[in-house]
Amino acid sequence: MNLATLLSQVPRVGPVYQKRLKNLRITSVRDLLFYFPRGYEDFSNITPIVNLKEGMSFCVRGKLLEIQEARTFRKRMSLTTGLVEDKTGAVRILWFNQPYLVTSLKQGDEVYLAGKVVRDKQGIFLGNPVQEKAQNSTFELTHLGRIVPVYAETSGVSSRWLRSIIKSVLVQLEGILETLPQEILKGKNFPAPQKALWQIHFPDSIKEAENSRNRFAFEELFHILLFILSERKKIASIKAPPIPLDTAVMSRFTKKLSFQLTDSQKKAAWQVLKDLEQPRPMNRLLEGDVGSGKTVVAAMAALSVAKAGYQTVFMAPTEILSQQHFKSVGALLSPFKLTVGLLTGSSDRFISPKLPNDSIEVSRTKLLKMALEGKVNLIIGTHALIQEKVRFGNLGLVIIDEQHRFGIKQRAKLLHRSTLIPHLLSLTATPIPRTLALTVYGDLDLSLIAELPKGRKEIITKVVAPEERKQTYSFIAKEVKAGRQVFVICPRIEKTEESGALEMKTVKEEHEKLSKEIFPKLNVGMLHGKMPKTEKEEVMRKFRMGKIHILVSTSVVEVGVDIPNASVMLIEGAERFGLAQLHQFRGRVGRAEHQSYCFLLTESSSSGILSRLRALSSAKNGFELAELDLKLRGVGSFTGTKQWGVPDFAMTQLTNLKLVEEAREAAKNLLEKDIALKKYPLLKARVQELRSNLHLE
Predict the structure, then answer these.
(1) With the CA atoms of 633, 635, 638 and 644 taken in that order, what torsion angle do they form, in degrees rounded to the nearest 10?
(2) Which of 64, 250, 429, 520 to pair with 305, CA 20 to 30 A apart?
(3) Where does the Helicase ATP-binding domain lie (predicted)?
C-alpha cells in the first residue's frame, strides 16, 4: 500500500464509507493520512480507582469483574452495567444504548476506561466511558492509554473509526520517498516522512506531534518557494525593452498635477521607473488602499514608455472602470500629446494629440489597426476584450488592475512581431499579508502606497444594531439634503431558496422598500450584475451626475467606481463580507473634501462577528485589516490561494511568518547551489508539477 492507493483498495473501507469519506475530501491513502487531527486528548495518565473524584473525567486501567445487560423501564433504551477493579479498589460502570459491549467485552478482560465520574444513590460510577482492551504495549493501543487524536467528523465517520483505519493503513504503508535534502532534515531535527505521520496520528508527546506537523508544512512551503524563486530567476533571463528614465519629462508631469504626490507615491513611482530601465521584464505589484493614487503612478509609467517609443496596454476588470481610467489617465497625459485609445464592448474611442481634451469615436477595425502599427501610445480596456482582440506593434508595458498576475506567455500573445517581452505592472487595492507576499506572490516585486493624499478626512465607521436603523435612515436623509449621495450594498440580488438566503437583504427588496417606504421623495437607483450593460451604464451616468440620490447595489461597486460626491456607504448583512471586501466598499466614499461615513448593518448578535466588524473601525489601513482577515478567516479567503492545491495543514502555516521565512531562505540557498535541481530529482519533479498546474499565467 502506498500514498497513491485508492480507498476502494483499502480493507474495511467499503462503498458506504468511501461515500462518507468523500464528504471530507478523502479519496486516497494520501488524503487519509494527511487528514490531520484537529486536536488531541491525553489518556496517557492512568488514575488509581481509589483517587477518582465526582464530577471529573479520568482514565483507569483494571480487570473487568462483571458485565451484563440490565433492565430499564424507559422504552428504546438499553443499559449495560459493569464493575472494574485495580489494585486500589473497584468502581461501577454504566453504558447507555451500547448493548454490543456484552459480546465484545468479557469478564476477566484487562481494560482501559475513560469517562466522567458521576454519583447516584448507590455511590460513584463511570458514566458512558470510552473503552479499549489492554494490550502488551502502548504502541498497540489506539483509543486509550496514550495521547489520542481527535478528528473533524462527518455523519457516519467517527474519530474512533478513523483512528482504527489510519492505524491499519500506517502499518501496511510502504516507505515514503523523502524530498527534503538531508542538511535541512538534520538542521531542523525533522523526522522522516513515515515517522512524522505516526507521530501526528499517534504521538509520543504533543511536542513530537507539533514538530511533525511543522515538518510537512515546511516541506509544502519549501516546494512552493523553490518553484516561485526559480520562476523569478527564469524571468530575469528573458529580454524586455529597456525604457530609459527621462527625469525632465517626469518633473514636468508632476508640476502639471493639481495636487502633490505623497512620499509613498514618489517612492513607488521611482521603483517602477527604475525597473523599466532594466533589459528584463518588470514583474511588479503595486499595492495601495482605495483612493491612495495608484493610477497616477501607472500614468507616469505609461508616459515614460511612450516617450521611449513603446506602447502600453491598461487592462481593467469592468467596462465602468475602463471608461473611468480612460477619462482620468487621458486627462493626466493630455499635456504630452499622446494617442490614448479605449476598447470596450459598447464603444471604442481615442484621444488624439491634436485634440487632447476631447475623445473621438472610432471603429473597432481602425483602433486595432492603430495598435498593430504602433500608432496608439496607450490602449485601455477590459481584460477579456484585450486578450481576445488586440495585437501590438511595439508593446513595452502591460498594466493590469485587480488581477495579480499576467504571465510571460500571456504577455507574448499580445505581441505582433517583437520578441521582447513587455514589462508588467499590476495594481491592487486588496492588501496582501506579508506571509502571502513572500510565498504565493513571491515571484512579484512589491511596491506599497501606504498613505492617502493630503487633506482626505478619515471615514467614520460604525457598526449599526437593528434598533439603530431608523436613526441611520434619518442621518442619510440629512446627508442627501446637504447635497451628498449614498451607496447601499446588499449581499444578494434577489431571494433564493438556498439555506440562509431567505433572511438575507437583497438589492431588489431593499430598492423597493427604500424608494417607496423610507425615502419616497428621493431618487433611489438600483445596480446589479444581471442588468443589461446599457442599463448599468445609464444608472452609473445618472449617479455620477447627481440625478440618483441613493444607489442600492451588489458588490459590483467594490472595485474602482469613483463618485467623489458620495459620502455615505451603508452595508446590509455586513457579516457576510470579509474585512478586506468591506474595506474596499468603504473606499467608495471619502474621495473628496466632505466628511464621509460607513455604516455596517448586521442582524447578528454573535460577539465574534461584532468584534470582527468593529475591527474595521479601529484599523488604520487595509494592510492591518488584511493581516486580521488572514487570522480570522484563513488563507483561502485571499484570491489566488486555492488554486495552489496546498493541503489545509500547510495553508494554515502560510500565516506563520517564521516558518515561511525559514522555508524561503532554505529554497534560496539550494537554488544558489543547484539552480537546475540536478542533484534533487524528486524536488525537481515536484517543482515541475507545480509549474504545469499553475504556470503563474
Answers:
(1) -150
(2) 429
(3) 275-449
Residue 275, SS3?
A: helix
DSSP for 125-137, written as a single string: EEEEEEEEE--SS
Residue type, 376: V
Residues 404, 521 within the same domain: no
**Distance between CA atoms of residues 124 and 115, nearest Å:** 12
Sign of the Cα pseudo-torsion (190, 191, 194, 198, in order)? negative
Cell of 263: 512620499
- pTM of the entire predicted model: 0.73
552 domain-assigned: yes
**Sites in the chain below the pLDDT cut of 50:** 498-502, 639-641, 643, 697
Cα–Cα dist 603/381, whole Å: 40
The residue from 424, 449, 474 where one domain ends is 449
Domain that holds residue 339: 247-449
What is the DSSP code (8-state) at residue 283? Answer: E
Distance CA 265, CA 260 (A): 10
Is 432 in the same domain as 355?
A: yes
Count of domains for the chain: 3
Q: Are residues 407 and 471 in the same domain?
A: no
Q: Is 245 left (phi over 0), alpha (psi -120 to 50) or beta?
A: beta
Question: Nearest-5° angle of CA 25, CA 28, CA 30?
Answer: 95
Same domain, 552 and 597: yes
Dihedral angle computed from the Cα positions of residues 185, 190, 194 and 197, in that order, rounded to the nearest 10 degrees? -150
Cell 486595432 found at:
368
The confidence score (pLDDT) of residue 457 equals 81
**CATH code, domain carrying 608:** 3.40.50.300
Residue 557: DSSP 8-state: G
- Contact (Cβ atoms closer than 8 angstroms) between residue 287 and residue 448: yes
Bridge partners, 361 (sequence order): 349
Confirm whether 535 is domain-assigned.
Answer: yes
Going by the DSSP 8-state scheme, the letter that residue 335 receives in this structure is G
Cα gap 130→101, rounded to integer Å? 11
CB 329 within 8 A of CB 302: yes
Nearest to 319 by CA among 363, 390, 382, 379: 382
Q: Where are the beta strands (DSSP E) in 318-430?
A: 340-343, 348-351, 360-361, 378-382, 395-401, 423-428
- Say yes or no: 342 and 484 in one domain: no
User: Are 453 and 291 in contact, with CB atoms under 8 Å apart?
Assistant: yes
Q: How many Cα atoms occupy the beta-carbon half-sphere of 104 within 13 Å? A: 9
pLDDT at position 637: 53
Tell me: do 382 and 439 sit in the same domain. Answer: yes
C-alpha cell recorded at residue 31: 488524503
Q: Is residue 19 part of a domain?
A: no
**How many whole angstroms separate alpha carbon 124 and alpha carbon 117?**
6
Same domain? For 349 and 472 the reply is no
Can you give the CATH number for the domain in which 121 is found? 2.40.50.140
Residues 6+ positions from 60 with CB-CB distance below 8 Å: 46, 47, 48, 49, 52, 84, 86, 91, 112, 113, 114, 126
> Last residue of some domain: 111, 145, 179?
145
Q: What b/e sequence results for 82-116 when a residue is b if at least 16 CB atoms lie within 10 Å of its CB, and e otherwise?
A: bbbebeeeebbbbbeeeeeebeebeeeeebbbbbe
* Neighbour tally for 9: CB within 10 Å: 10
Query: Max alpha carbon distance in the chain (Å)?
Result: 103
Whether 443 and 467 map to the same domain: the answer is: no
The long-range contacts involving 128-132, CB below 8 angstroms and separated by at least 24 positions, are: 128/94, 128/95, 128/96, 128/98, 129/93, 129/95, 130/160, 131/101, 131/105
**SS3 per residue for 467-523:** HHHHHHHHHHHHHHHCCCEEEEECCECCCCCCCCHHHCCEHHHHHHHHHHHHCCCCC
Residue 240 is assigned to a structural domain of this protein = no
- Angle made by CA atoms 402, 405, 410, in degrees to the nearest 5: 120
